Amino acid sequence: MNERFAADWLSLREPADHAARSHPLLERLRGAWCSGREPLRIVDLGSGTGSNLRYLAPRLPAPQHWRLVDHDPELLGRVRPPATAGRLSLRTEQADLRDWELPATGTDLVTASALLDLVSADWLGRLVRACAGHGAAALLVLSYDGDVTWTVPDPGDAFVRAAVNAHQERDKGLGAALGPRATTEAATRFREAGYRVWIEPSPWHLDSGSLPLARQLIAGWINAAEEAFPEQAGTLRAWGARRLEDLRSGRTRLQVGHRDLLALPDAPR
Ligand SMILES: C[S@@+](CC[C@H](N)C(=O)[O-])C[C@H]1O[C@@H](n2cnc3c(N)ncnc32)[C@H](O)[C@@H]1O
User: Fold this and answer.
1) Relative to the CA of 100, which ligand 1 atom is closest?
2) Average pLDDT, stretch 106-127?
3) Which domain holds residue 29?
4) Whose C-alpha lies nearest to ligand 1, atom 15?
């Protein structure tokens, strides 16, 4: 079943996402890949309302042409370009990524944020083959890696994390999801296709200043764990209330693991 993402959730996570992203990977992309490509032709998969566009466009050389692909027309209707980017054109495209193919005409960069953990091994294989077929670079960022660390632990943490990580591997619309294994699997596939690959951590750092995001995140975790363990509903809700209060009071901080991956084709243009 296709998973729907609320615009409110995406806007809540956008500042944490932007703060978490890897600078070294961006520098490598700018230096090694972007120079001399004008316009830079970029495809953003599972774009939502355009968070990835708003982060990347001001940081890449202009001019750029963006194509934003998502199956949710409501999210695409809310796409806003960044205020500070240079010359930029953009097009939104409503499509289900299950049957979507890279445009035959040139694409320099395929990018996606917070998408890779939702896709299956088969779908990833198709993506890698499409990138390789077009000689495109890939920047796949903010993929959940399964690591959840509280600075002060609670006896319920490990159970919730294990239940959430198992839930991450369910079918989210693109086949059984890779979940926390997504970046490692993508690195292997891109290397097999002759790419050079770099991975950097991009964790969220949450504390008493991140309560609205933490509240929704923890509520989502509890829902996921409850689906698998309905008999534990009371224990899970008590854990959630306790952990939110721990964050609010400053007793603990929370790190949620993500990874960014950059893959560059080895072949000359
Ligand atoms: C976690 S959200 C990330 C959105 C955006 N990239 C961001 O960073 O804010 C995942 C996005 O993938 C889209 N998506 C999920 N499955 C899809 C599919 N089968 N076809 C097209 N888009 C899909 C969702 O609509 C959603 O916008």
Assistant:
1) 20
2) 96
3) 7-145+173-205+255-265
4) 46
pLDDT digits (tens, 9 = 90+) for 5-21: 899 999 999 999 999 99
- Residue 234 inside a domain? The answer is no
In this prediction the pTM is 0.95
Q: Is residue 182 a part of any domain in this protein?
A: yes
- Please report, for the domain that includes residue 192, its CATH number: 3.40.50.150
* Mean pLDDT value across residues 209-238: 95
Q: Which residues pair with 69 in a beta bridge?
A: 45, 93
pLDDT band, very low/low/confident/very high, at 84 (cuts 50, 70, 90): confident
- Residues at CB less than 6 angstroms from ligand 1: 2, 5, 10, 17, 46-48, 51-52, 70-72, 75, 96-98, 113-115, 118, 173-174
Cα dihedral 42, 47, 144, 179, rounded to 10, equals -100
Number of domains present in the structure of the chain? 1
Distance 70 CA to ligand 1 centre (A): 6
CB 116 within 8 A of CB 138: no
Residue 227 lies in a domain: no
User: Per-residue confidence at 104, pLDDT binned at 50, 70, 90?
Assistant: low
d(CA 113, CA 111): 7
